[in-house]
Amino acid sequence: MNYQLSANLLKSVKTAKNILVNTHKNPDYDSIASALSLQYVLKTLGKNVKIVSCQKINEHFFFLEGAEEINFINFKSFKNFINYDLFIIPDTGNFDRVTGSKEIALPEAIDYIVIDHHKTNSFSHPLKLIDEQAGSTTEVLYSLFSDWNIKIDQNLATLLLTGILGDTVFLRYCENRKKTMKAVTDLINNGADMDFISENFYERYDFSYIKLVGEFLARMQKEKGFVWSAVDYKTYKKYSFPEGAREMVADLFFRGISETDFGVVLLESKKGLIILSFRSKKNTDVTKFAKLFGGGGHKNAAGATVHGNIDQIIKKIKEVIDRI
């Protein structure tokens, strides 16, 4: 048995008939793949399942079966919670990452299960499974499904492996490498199509996406101990709002600069609304920076979304460094 909570979680699932599952705000591969994996397994258990998201899902994820059927909803006006017995919240650290806004709370009349791998998860529900040693929530689900004696076929294996590879940047950044590699090996042995995943990750870039990556790199600045780059809303609009460029730049470049400890990529996704992605080297914990702006994440990969301006944000980060 991987988790002591596994039996209680399965009991709650078996008791429910109609189940909601979410993707978090600005969903990534792990968020999408976790939701789709849960849906796949819950349907085999005879449950009615609906995946909901506070944002429309980018077409880049549509290579995953079922991704284009994820339902975009406005949580502020969504009245159908009464039709569901259980809400499963994977890979999501707090309620506003579910609803898309700090002003929109989740209803209390529905039971919740939280499944995550982020140490900054702030949900207080008793049925909360957090595995900080997992490199992704899909890795947590792999272990959980094993406890539930779920048969992992090729479709499920590919979904789970997609989330693991996405969150670890193809195994570059693992919390517990032996644990993660065992999961990857088992999933490949069960038919996961790694070539299919790799092709869809790295061989379908839109031209405007790569041009935006270039903007981030051209604007990179080096400060005491860190590097940063920011793209304003006007520039983002110029390239037709391609998603994923911020994360790609952060993952592939911003923790690799010599003589620095970490990097932060800033994107003004809407006027006055800035998304931050922090990436750091092994011994630098960037959650302390993400928490400054109400965010969270991992020791070496964290993020936040904040209203403000770029100069103020960089100034605040510098002030923290000067105090260390």
* Main sheet characteristics: 6 strands, parallel
> What's the CATH class label of the largest domain?
Alpha Beta
- CATH architectural grouping of the largest domain: Alpha-Beta Complex
Shape: globular
Let me know the CATH homologous superfamily of the largest domain.
Answer: inorganic pyrophosphatase (n-terminal core)
Count of helical segments?
12
* SS elements, strand count: 12
Structural class label: alpha/beta
Radius of gyration: 19 Å
Domain DHHA1: 259-321
InterPro entries: DDH_dom, DHH_sf, DHHA1_dom, Oligoribo/pAp-PDE_c-di-AMP_PDE
Pfam families: DHH (PF01368), DHHA1 (PF02272)
Protein name: Phosphoesterase RecJ domain protein
Notable characteristics:
single chain, inorganic pyrophosphatase (n-terminal core), Diaminopimelate Epimerase, Chain A, domain 1, 2 domains, 6-stranded mixed sheet, 12 helices, 12 strands, globular
